[in-house]
Amino acid sequence: PRTVFSGIQPTGIPHLGNYLGALSNWVHLQETARSEDTFIYSVVGLHAITVSQDPTKLRRDRLDALTSLLAIGIDPKRSILFFQEDVQEHTELAWILGCLAPIGRLNRMTAYKATSPEASSDERLGLFAYPVLQAADILAYKATHVPVGEDQRQHLELTRDLATPSISNVPPKYSPFPKTPQVPPTKRILSLRDPSQKMSKSSPHVNSRILLTDTSSDIMLKIRKAITDSNFGITYDPINRPGISNLLRILHACRAPMRSHDTALEESEASTRLDDELHGATMASFKEAVADAVSARIGPIREEFARLRADEGYVRQVAREGANKAKDIASRTVREVKERIGLGQL
Ligand code: AQP
Fold this sequence. Notes:
- The chain has 346 residues and is mainly alpha-helical.
- It folds into two domains: 210 residues, 3-Layer(aba) Sandwich (Rossmann fold); 103 residues, Tyrosyl-Transfer RNA Synthetase.
- Helices cover 52% and strands 5% of the residues.
- It contains 14 helices and three strands.
- The chain has a three-stranded parallel sheet with strand order 1-2-3.
- Helix 3 crosses helix 13, helix 3 packs across helix 14 and helix 10 packs across helix 13.
- The longest helix has 30 residues.
- The site of adenosine-5'-tetraphosphate (AQP) has 18 residues, from helix 1.
């Protein structure tokens, strides 16, 4: 049986990069479930506070993140949906793993270096240590599958190493963690304003990202303004034409039926399939085609989000029930781990 775990930070409404890079795969996995599989999806507030957050905004963002997961099709009858901070075992296991994680290893994490290029003594411990919390998130459920974007590969490798008996023996009798982490080979979706950066919730440029709640006219405007280049024609060339190539990937992914990322964004497939249609297209007509495909994919999500937002009581109830189910599993793991290391109940 598979145990699938993944998380999203409550740092704003999820964008097209989150959706195409990770969240659509969460739904795909749920849709292809066998009866013995377990799906655990979390809104990870403890990760969000590794950078400064406004408490009022964070409260709103937490609810919006969980609402977004319901809106894209995560079904609380089939998947456990919860707020990470409601299950204390995450922090408890993170401390235990933190006592085993080598600092040198954390120092080499590229995601950390990107956030703090010039690490100083003012750097916050939580930001530095968050891959350890991420390892705890995964190991608390002994997850066998962790569908995340490719930017998370290094963190999954740390998780796998912290789970090996030679380092931690945590958790005991734990073997099914895959030798190579389950990262879809999806290329990241890039910022519409600066294709050298990934599309991100925290970029100050609102036109750099398409939100799952954007209207068709928002989408059209943002795609029209997307930075491309002035070369002739529409060709797929991620190195020399990153802006156009990003739009091509978006077009292809939004048109693809929901399916595994193993095939969804294959570059060669993307370029050959679209070549015929786009041969001779102008930049304006190309952008219009991209905007139409994005609107068609996101429209139903936006409508479902609006419906659920009017029913906050339901969303809170899903979170409460999810936290109880998650706690049942995570507390068993933490009990086993504490026994193992000599901290079991006397
Ligand atoms: N641009 C992207 N392309 C593909 N996948 C992406 N992910 C994030 N950005 C892209 C994947 O989305 C999942 C959830 O992301 P997260 O909420 O944990 O935050 P993040 O990775 O730090 O991404 P953001 O959206 O840019 O948030 P902020 O601005 O708050 O840091 C992850 O699986 C991630 O890989």
